[in-house]
């Protein structure tokens, strides 16, 4: 996909061009993650649920208001129940 140039709106928003959004499989309402890099770039990617404790993205489950991976859930269980 080609690079495109866009300007920020007065509210500092940016619209993802329709062809790019379609190429990436993003539709209106798709959640995205924004990552600022040290070299001044902004990376926009589809949202990935992450573990509240370790930041991992593998096998994440939502429980009681938090996202947690199996490793951290086991560690939490051992801490609470021992």
What does the model show?
- The chain has helices spanning about 20-25, 70-80, and strands spanning about 30-35, 40-45, 60-65, 65-70.
- By secondary structure, the chain is of the alpha+beta class.
- A two-stranded antiparallel ribbon has the order 1-2. A two-stranded antiparallel sheet has the order 3-4.
- The longest helix is centred in the C-terminal third of the chain and has 12 residues, at about 70-80.
- It starts with 17 loop residues before the first helix and ends with a helix.
Radius of gyration: 18 Å
CATH topology of the largest domain: Pemi-like Protein 1, Chain: D
Number of structural domains: 2
Question: Mean pLDDT score, rounded?
Answer: 93
Shape: elongated
Order of adjacent strands in the largest pleated sheet: 1-2
Q: Let me know the number of strands.
A: 4
Low-confidence stretches: none
Alpha-beta content class = alpha+beta
CATH class of the largest domain: Mainly Beta
CATH architecture label of the largest domain: Ribbon
Strand content: 15-25%
Series of secondary-structure elements, N-terminal to C-terminal:
HEEEEH
Largest pleated sheet:
2 strands, antiparallel
- Estimate the helix proportion, in percent: 10-25%
Roughly how many Å apart are the termini? 53 Å
């Amino acid at each position: 996909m080609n690079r495109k140039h866009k300007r920020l709106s007065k509210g500092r928003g940016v619209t993802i061009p329709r062809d790019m959004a379609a190429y990436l499989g993003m539709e209106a309402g798709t959640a995205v993650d924004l990552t600022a890099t040290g070299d001044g770039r902004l990376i926009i990617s589809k949202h990935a649920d992450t573990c509240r404790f370790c930041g991992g993205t593998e096998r994440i489950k939502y429980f009681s208001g938090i996202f947690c991976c199996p490793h951290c859930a086991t560690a939490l269980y051992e801490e609470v129940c021992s």
